[in-house]
């Protein structure tokens, strides 16, 4: 029962239900707006709210986990996650809906960091990058299958049924996790609560965390309004939109899986090309919206680039923590989720402002601004890592003399 393959399946399942819960708002945004008689932009701000709470709460909860058993921390957090989705399903008004989304967001990031920490402890070194890539792929699988299925359920029954389904999947996954994950696992003892924050003294970390933030800030400026893009700008039917959302999610899944291979091959340096491509695609988005045949390929290629950053950056954070800050393993495991969601909050907020003032035309260039920032940060980090490696090599040679 306690085989690595089954444990990996459970960890990927955790990320799937987390992604399903987080991303589904994009697929049901019009239905929720109609239900509560609010604007599409108001529902879009739920994405911003979720991501902001996620980014703020995740490091705090990760720090509080400290020396406590990771198993029981995971059980508690997943239970709260299930309760948050049940409250969403039962929400009688927009305020309760917003509160339920915040409750879900509070624990989601810490659950991801715990899943990654379990994965890094359970997998042998040669399989670690692949397992981390698969854990992140749970989010892409949610985009591939969860969002289109959830959109279909919402269209033909009710959006509330989507959250009943997420709650049920959460219960099943929690039971499986309790059966297969080791109960005694802890991270290294810490001298005090704040000693875990020492990792932020490393300049590489301070630069590295900007990559997932700017990456998803750029993507979410347009991704938050992906359904209106397909429906309003390109005039696709609702059934076709479900297929297109599936296609977008499938492309993001391919990108996520390829990010694992990138992580094994000095992936951070290769991200320069990724961010350059993102910038170009987002700048051209308003131009190609006049034609379905040109707009759909551009949108799908953006989906491919969406999660290429995941495994290279996450493996980089874990390597720095293992070598220099072992007391910060859980915190380091959460960096990708924390700063990606901070980027989601920024991107979706900017997207909402652009949507209100410029319509769908302005969201592409708005996203391109953040992609260009990610490009500049990655160039700086690459030079820093190369100079650091050169210095260490030089020092090593001098010691041998």
UniProtKB/TrEMBL annotation:
Q: Record's superkingdom?
A: Bacteria
Q: Any idea which UniProt keywords this protein has?
A: Cell membrane, Membrane, Transmembrane, Transmembrane helix, Transport
Task: Please give the Pfam families that the UniProt record associates with this protein.
Answer: MFS_1
Q: Tell me where it resides.
A: Cell membrane
List membrane-spanning regions: 9-30, 36-58, 70-96, 102-124, 131-150, 162-185, 205-226, 238-259, 271-289, 295-318, 330-356, 362-381
| Any one Gene Ontology cellular component term annotated for this protein | plasma membrane
For this chain, one GO molecular function annotation is: transmembrane transporter activity
Task: Determine if Methyltransferase is one of this entry's keywords.
Answer: no
Q: How does it sit in the membrane?
A: Multi-pass membrane protein
- Looking at the record, the residues that make up the Major facilitator superfamily (MFS) profile domain are 7-389
Q: Any idea what this protein is called? A: MFS transporter
Annotated organism of origin: Liquorilactobacillus nagelii
| Taxonomic classification | Bacteria, Bacillati, Bacillota, Bacilli, Lactobacillales
């Amino acid at each position: 029962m306690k085989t690595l393959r089954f444990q990996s399946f459970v960890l990927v399942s955790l990320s799937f239900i987390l992604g399903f819960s987080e991303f589904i708002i994009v697929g049901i945004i019009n239905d929720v707006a109609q239900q509560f008689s609010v604007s599409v932009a108001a529902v879009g701000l739920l994405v911003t709210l979720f991501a902001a709470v996620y980014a703020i709460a995740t490091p705090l909860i990760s720090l509080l986990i400290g020396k406590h058993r990771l198993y029981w921390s995971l059980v508690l957090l997943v239970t709260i996650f299930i309760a948050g989705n049940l409250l969403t399903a039962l929400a009688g008004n927009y305020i309760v809906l917003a509160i339920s989304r915040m409750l879900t967001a509070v624990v989601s990031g810490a659950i991801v960091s715990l899943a990654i920490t379990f994965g890094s402890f359970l997998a042998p070194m040669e399989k670690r990058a692949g397992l981390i890539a698969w854990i992140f792929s749970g989010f892409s699988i949610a985009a591939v299958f969860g969002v289109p299925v959830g959109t279909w359920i919402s269209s033909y029954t009710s959006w509330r049924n989507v959250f009943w389904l997420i709650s049920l999947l959460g219960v099943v996954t929690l039971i499986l996790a309790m059966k297969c994950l080791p109960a005694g696992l802890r991270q290294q003892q810490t001298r005090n609560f704040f000693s875990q924050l020492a990792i932020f003294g490393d300049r590489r970390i301070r630069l590295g965390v900007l990559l997932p933030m700017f990456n998803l800030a750029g993507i979410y400026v347009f991704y938050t309004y992906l359904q209106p893009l397909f429906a309003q700008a390109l005039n696709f039917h609702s059934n076709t939109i479900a297929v297109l959302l599936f296609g977008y999610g499938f492309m993001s899944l391919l990108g996520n899986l390829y990010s694992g291979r990138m992580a094994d091959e000095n992936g951070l340096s290769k991200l320069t090309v990724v961010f350059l491509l993102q910038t170009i695609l987002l700048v051209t988005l308003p131009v190609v919206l006049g034609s379905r045949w040109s707009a759909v390929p551009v949108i799908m290629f953006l989906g491919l680039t969406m999660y290429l950053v995941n495994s290279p950056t996450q493996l980089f954070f874990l390597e720095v923590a293992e070598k220099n800050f072992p007391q910060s393993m859980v915190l380091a495991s959460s960096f990708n989720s924390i700063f990606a969601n901070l980027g989601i909050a920024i991107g979706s907020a900017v997207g909402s402002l652009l949507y209100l003032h410029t319509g769908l035309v302005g969201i592409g260039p708005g996203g391109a601004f953040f992609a260009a920032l990610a490009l500049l940060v990655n160039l700086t980090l690459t030079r820093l890592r190369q100079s650091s490696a050169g210095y260490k090599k030089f020092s090593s040679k001098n010691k041998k003399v």
